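F.,

This is the one I mentioned.
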């Protein structure tokens, strides 16, 4: 084995230990990555309002691109099988987000889609293996995922409305107006003080109402749904059971659900 191959194996082992290990160093590393990721997401949310700041905006843009590229490269190396890693839908979403960062001028009109990074972060195993170690596969995880889906939807629609109608329509003069329109449409309040013009504006309003209401209902259901734990029955394969279940409610098989103090 060549010296380069040995170095590659050592690098893969090191990254795998950091991204998937349980040592205090690995946990601190993942918390740091998530903290930077949240700052990048905050930049994505604020980007529509600061993209006219010239050099400062582009410096922040390429700094975010550098972080995302390094993080994705490290995860790919830690995973080992690049082809299997590329088959994950979340990876392709992150690759698209990276493309909008690397080519901010060409893909300026699609910049609002960067906020989808919030959804990919909260729905990733990496996040729950770190922050949600005590809550993995529980009600807390379901609520967090439902909330992130709703927030991502709100900011994606807000960014689209702002980039498409701000300055071109009297009703939308700033980012707050776009956010206000999104929330009032999502909640079907419809005060009528801000409306989007034309057929496309009406279609966008309908899509916002239907998509937003669906995600909001999903969030409410995850909050009100009786608490379940994920533990697969060895006989019938049923995965969701009551926390104190002794027998599988589908086949009657004796269960041995670990008690995590829930």
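My design for it:
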């Amino acid at each position: 084995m060549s010296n380069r191959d040995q170095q590659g194996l050592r690098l893969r082992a090191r990254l795998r230990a950091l991204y998937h290990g349980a040592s205090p160093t690995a946990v601190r590393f993942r918390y740091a990555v998530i903290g930077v990721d949240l700052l990048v997401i905050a930049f994505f949310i604020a980007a529509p309002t600061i993209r006219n700041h010239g050099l400062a905006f582009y410096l922040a843009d390429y700094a975010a691109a550098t972080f995302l590229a390094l993080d994705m490269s490290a995860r790919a190396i830690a995973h080992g099988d690049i082809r299997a890693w590329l088959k994950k839908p979340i990876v392709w979403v992150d690759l698209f987000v990276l493309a909008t960062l690397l080519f901010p001028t060409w893909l300026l009109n699609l910049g609002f889609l960067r906020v989808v990074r919030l959804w990919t972060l909260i729905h990733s195993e990496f996040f729950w293996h770190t922050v949600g170690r005590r809550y993995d596969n529980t009600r807390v995880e379901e609520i967090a995922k439902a909330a992130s889906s709703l927030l991502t939807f709100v900011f994606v629609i807000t960014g689209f409305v702002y980039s498409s109608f701000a300055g071109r329509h009297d009703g939308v003069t700033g980012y707050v107006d776009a956010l206000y329109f999104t929330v009032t449409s999502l909640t079907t309040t419809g005060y009528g003080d801000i409306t989007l013009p034309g057929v496309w504006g009406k279609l966008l309003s309908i899509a916002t109402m239907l998509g937003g209401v669906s995600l909001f209902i999903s969030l409410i259901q995850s909050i009100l749904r009786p608490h379940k734990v994920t533990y697969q029955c060895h006989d019938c394969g049923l995965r969701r059971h009551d926390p104190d279940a002794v027998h599988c409610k589908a086949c009657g098989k004796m269960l041995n659900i670990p008690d995590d103090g829930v």
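The chain has three domains: 1-134, 137-225, 227-262.

Talk soon.
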